[in-house]
Design brief:
Elements (H helix, E strand, L loop, with lengths): L3 H14 L8 E9 L5 E8 L4 E6 L5 H15 L4 H11 L5 H9 L12 E7 L4 H12 L4 E11 L2 E8 L3 H10 L15 E4 L8 H7 L1 E4 L3 H4 L10 E6 L3 E8 L4 E2 L4 E4 L2 E4 L7 H6 L9 E10 L18 E2 L4 H13 L6
Parallel strand pairs: 3-4, 4-5, 7-9
Antiparallel strand pairs: 1-2, 2-3, 5-6, 7-15, 8-14, 9-10, 10-14, 11-14, 12-13
């Protein structure tokens, strides 16, 4: 094993070359950024939902110092304007355009209106003391999106080997990120208990099937499916198909299930979902992969409409996470509009 300080510099170089070392759902947009707070942010990334990711390497700082520094930088990041973020990426990429790079990386359009509406903090370290771990755990349990990636870098001849482990389940951090308040200056409201759900993003995912058999689903990677864990039985959900509009409102009737374990009601009785879906063969291909397998949540629909009748008025809430608990006035406005368009909304 090489020495700790050298390994942290080596790790930063590896991350710059390939951000997938940390997450396949992040794209690097800045390195060693002057914050004006007496220091430099090690790395800045963007997630596929437009949230920003601050990444700080421990280097030779004490564990508590690096956590405090990360929180200080988060204060700075949340106040970055869209123009400043675009400028930082242009400098990092030597003239590149963030919207173009985002589209090429994630296959979707960057919503500049929502850019930097949320962020998460990642500390990268070989180890932390127990005091610092308790601080991070305390913050996370209070919905602050912070996590620690523990790593070791080894050399085997010319090979560089990396081992890693997360202190907190990354799913929890993503959920906290999706549900944090909007950035400084934007109004926040108490969560009203109703969930936003994004359904789609795959040619195999059929809204006609979802209406007919009563479910929502997500898959193709943990980033898409892990926020389904938020949905408790009895929760009311408002479903939007990206780029199309809102198509239904319903009530969750059961827990999340893997595609191979999920059954639906048919005229001939319960049947495995893999026997009835239009594109079942596509889902079968990843059914044994715990990372990519489709996950299903049963839903009792109150009101649904076909895709060509979707509600897509200007000013309605949208988010690229599969499930979110919005706390912005736009969400209240969205539900008020949808209740008028979907009169059978279950309450």
């Amino acid at each position: 094993m090489i020495d700790r300080l050298a390994s942290e510099q080596l790790l930063e170089d590896m991350i710059v070359r390939d951000m997938r070392i940390l997450s396949p759902d992040w794209m690097l947009i800045g390195q060693q950024i002057l914050t004006g707070l007496g220091g430099k942010l090690d790395l800045l990334a963007i997630a596929r939902d437009g949230s920003l990711v601050l990444i700080e390497l421990k280097r030779d700082r004490t564990p508590r110092d690096v956590v405090a520094q990360t929180l200080d930088y988060a204060y700075w990041v949340q106040r970055l304007s869209v123009e400043e973020i675009l400028m930082h990426y242009s400098k990092f990429s030597k003239g590149g355009n963030l919207s173009d790079a985002f589209r090429a990386r994630f296959g979707s359009e960057l919503d500049e209106e929502e850019l930097n509406s949320t962020h998460q903090m990642i500390v990268v370290a070989s180890e932390l003391d127990a005091h610092t771990e308790r601080i991070v755990q305390y913050l996370s349990e209070r919905d602050i999106p912070i996590n620690v990636l523990f790593f070791r870098v080894f050399k085997n001849g010319d090979e560089q080997l990396l081992s890693r482990s997360w202190m907190i389940d990354p799913a929890e951090t993503q959920i906290n990120t999706a549900n944090t308040a909007m950035k400084g200056g934007k109004e926040r409201e108490p969560w009203n208990g109703e969930y936003y759900v994004s359904f789609g993003g795959s040619n195999a995912r059929s809204w006609a099937d979802a209406m007919k058999y009563g479910f929502i689903s997500a898959g193709g990677g943990s980033w898409y499916s892990q926020t389904l864990k938020q949905l408790e039985v009895g929760a009311r959900i408002w479903v939007k198909i990206p780029q199309t509009g809102y198509v239904g409102v319903g009530r969750v009737t059961g827990p999340v299930s893997l595609v191979g374990e999920f059954a639906v009601q048919t005229p001939s009785g319960p049947r495995p979902v893999l026997e009835v879906l239009q594109h079942a063969e596509t889902f079968k291909a990843d059914a044994q992969d715990p990372e990519k397998a489709e996950r299903f949540v049963p839903v009792e629909w109150f009101h649904t409409v076909p895709e060509d009748q979707a509600v897509n008025d200007l000013g309605l809430f949208g988010n690229q996470n599969t499930v979110a608990k919005p706390t912005v006035p736009k969400w209240r406005h969205t539900i008020e509009v949808l209740k008028g368009r979907f009169p059978n909304h279950g309450g």
